[in-house]
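User: Some background: our group keeps a shared notebook of sequences we're curious about, and every so often someone picks one and asks for a predicted structure to add to the entry. Today it's my turn. The entry only has the sequence so far, pasted here. Could you supply the structure so I can complete it?
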Amino acid sequence: MSKLPNITTSIFSVMSQLANDYGAINLSQGFPNFPVDERLLQISERLLRENIHQYTPMAGLPLLMERIAALTAKNYQRNVNIATEMLITAGATQGVFTALNTFINQGDEVLILDPSYDSYEPSVLVAGGKPVRISLNEDYAPNFNKIEDAISAKTKMIVINNPHNPTGRIWTEEEFQTLEQILEKHPQVLILGDEVYEYISFSHPHISFNSRPKLIERTIVASSFGKSLHVTGWKVGYLIAPEKLMYEMKKVHQFLVFSVNSFSQHAIAEYLNVVDFSEVAKMYKRKRDLFQNLLKDSRFELMPCDGTYFQVVNYNQISTKNDVDFAKELITNHSVAAIPISVFYNDATDRNMLRFCFAKTDETLIAAAEKLKEV
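Assistant: Of course. Here's the predicted structure to add to the notebook entry:
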């Protein structure tokens, strides 16, 4: 009997396969197509011949954890005890799975804000929990009336992705304050803060759960170097949480992966001494601005993009087709691949929106925009 009977081939695989079949420019999957930093390559080449290829400690390479703690203190003024409050994971997806499968038991409810990343619900289901999907407002702001109404005695956790994939929206200070007021009434509810795009913000600064004293004792923060350092294939992420929560998560992590790729941990630890995350944000802002400027004369309507490396567009002026069919038509007739936003909703809400990934070379973005302007 399947634990995930309704899970089929992901839309990302479907669109990428179609893109391959038709030789389309692939702006669907969320990973860069440009080289990583030359300094990271040089560090990697040198380390490859050093004695770093055996297991690291289960919780992670101490040097990497120290560097992450320094980064967290610098950016969020949170002092993390690496021995008791941090865990290196095989990407943020494994961190999310570990957190949910540590704390969710049969019948527990988990609030998920739609549109949402596709790994949350399956992780809840494997744990035996019940996903409770709550739609964001039309402008993708949180609907706190719906959130509060959905909280019950069975609610164990709420998952919040900020900066938000797929919409690119970032929570405001006022929204955090409202969440704090609501959760003050429900002390049993834990928070899983998915912050993998934390260093890719443009319009206003990213506010991390790491910087919220009222929430910090009940929050697990998931982060990822794959997104911020353009090394998605290295699968190195990390969790930060208070000791009482981390103690339990380490038990599950130990028997899930034990320890994460040693080479990647060593290379990232050294690279963190030279990389400037503000430069990463500037680079992606330039790409966002380039892509937006290239499309300003098209018939696509550009939605706001506060962070991440995704641009959402509305195609109401172009077609009345549903977003999945229009995304397929965009590949077959115009040779550009995107992701339809309805697939991120439990009820397949369709507002004629597509998501483009602009973590691509300028040449790729220019070539894609030329085709999109003809649609």
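Suggested note for the entry: The chain has a mean pLDDT of 96. The first strand starts at residue 25 and ends at 26.
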